[in-house]
Design goal:
There is one protein chain. The protein has helices at 4-16, 20-39, 77-83, 105-132, 202-212, 214-217, 247-252, 257-265, 280-287, 314-318, 323-332, 341-345, 350-355, 363-371, 377-381, 385-392, 396-419, and strands at 44-50, 55-65, 74-76, 93-98, 138-147, 150-154, 159-162, 178-189, 192-198, 222-229, 233-239, 270-275, 295-299, 304-309, 335-340. The protein is of the alpha/beta class. Helix 2 (20-39) runs antiparallel to helix 4 and helix 9 (280-287) runs antiparallel to helix 11.
């Protein structure tokens, strides 16, 4: 018959995923602590698990002497011969088994607390060891609760946390919802392992494509880079050395099935799949997709490119609030200055140059306004704030600043002749 303690050790190890050696060590430590509470901290005692009888045995060790001075540490030789070892000699250290049933209630309660804490610590170490090697992986879980805006995710044997900064702002969840995320870090803190999850990390998008596109997982297609504005738009650059594989087509999938699976997971985030090219100008041109590019002028010294697009493609190339060009910059690593063909040919226009003198007016925005028929500082000064905001995508405060600064420039120009 299997002793009760032995059965409990094996069952606890199975239930909690712990090596039984860890549980035995916790039991030995607990019994040792209980024994010291009973006998005192100065005594020489040891605790060992006897697997044959399924028991934690506690021994008090005493030195064999002729005359006992300290009964807690010494034993007379005649008693040693009679009760322990007939061949014991002076100076030997002999272990005497202690009856653990004599331990008091407080000592036993302390032992229980130690066992619980040791097992909990071992579980935490196990979780940390498991997840520290899983950084960079996708995990599925359920929303368990919310703490100060963070989402606590039940991962099974562990909990993960999605901080506010790693959440897509327009997404909302409730308790019990299934949620997929990316492990971007695992930390060992006093409360146990902290598994940090993200839905905004660029590599979350990369990992989703690895799942949906077997060619990426198999190494036939390389993901060169990813840029995201989470929940809004993303760009992913891919390439392959196999001439028989179309990397963009493989990522899109039949009838867009593969990319749509990723879009669905990201709750509608738009994704541009860009073919990578070693030709930097070609790469930058592709990165500005869906806009069509006219020509590109490279400035290698400043790692910058001036991209000229047809007039009707300027808004598309720049994107809402500059989003498209911003993502292209992140994706390629190049500074990109987008100009329309008409603006490129009208760089010397006095009206265009004047627009650039307005504080806070970027060149791309000036080109956009110029192409929309606003070709002078005076037109800015008299413009409607909402109209400027609508045309350029800037907020109302920026549009108001332009109007005020344009008015100031006009006032200065009017005052200048009088002063002369």
């Amino acid at each position: 018959m299997v002793p009760e303690l032995k059965r409990l050790i094996e069952q606890m190890g199975k239930d909690r995923g712990l090596d039984k050696g860890i549980i035995i060590e916790a039991l030995e430590t607990a019994m040792l602590t209980a024994a010291r509470k009973k006998l005192g901290s100065h005594v020489d005692i040891e605790a060992h698990y006897n697997e044959d009888v399924g028991e934690i045995e506690v021994f008090q060790f005493k030195t064999v002497v002729d005359k006992v001075v300290d009964p807690d540490m010494q034993i007379p030789i005649e008693i040693a011969h009679r009760d322990l070892d007939e061949e014991a000699e002076l100076g030997d250290s002999l272990g005497m088994k202690i009856d653990t049933s004599t331990f008091g209630r407080i000592a036993v309660q302390t032992a229980k607390q130690i066992i619980v804490q040791r097992v909990k610590d071992a579980e935490r170490d196990n979780v940390y060891d498991e997840y520290k090697d899983r950084k960079g992986e996708l995990v599925n879980g359920f929303v368990q609760r919310f703490e100060a805006g963070s989402i606590i995710v039940n991962l099974g044997r562990a909990e993960g946390v999605i901080p506010v900064s790693e959440q897509i702002h327009r997404e909302s969840y409730k308790r019990g919802d299934r949620i997929r995320s990316y492990i971007y870090d695992v930390k060992k803190v006093s409360k146990g392992p902290q598994i940090l999850l993200s839905r905004t990390h660029p590599n979350f998008l990369r990992a989703l494509f690895e799942v949906e596109v077997p060619e990426i997982d198999e190494g036939l297609i390389d993901v060169i880079n990813v840029s995201r504005e989470p929940g809004k738009r993303a760009k992913i650059a891919v390439r392959t050395k196999d001439k028989d594989i179309d990397p963009v087509g493989a990522c899109v999938g039949m009838r867009g099935a593969r990319v749509q699976s990723v879009v669905q997971e990201l709750r509608g985030e738009k994704i541009d799949i860009i073919p990578y090219s070693d030709d930097a100008t070609q790469y930058v041109s592709s990165a500005l997709s869906p806009a069509k590019v006219g020509h590109v002028v490279m400035d290698e010294a400043n790692h910058a490119m001036e991209v000229v697009v047809p007039d009707d493609q300027l808004s598309l190339a720049i994107g809402k609030n500059g989003q498209n060009v911003r993502l292209a910059v992140k994706l390629t690593g190049w500074k990109i200055d987008v100009k329309s063909e008409s603006a490129d040919s009208q760089k010397e226009s006095p009206g265009y140059s004047a627009l650039l003198k307005i504080p806070g007016m970027e060149e791309a925005t000036a080109e956009l306004l110029f192409n929309k028929g606003i070709k002078s500082v005076a037109m800015i000064a008299s413009a409607d704030r909402e109209m400027l905001s609508s045309l350029t995508g800037v907020d109302d405060s920026t549009a108001q600043l332009w109007i005020e600064e344009a008015g100031r420039i006009i006032d200065e120009e009017v005052a200048a002749p009088r002063e002369s």
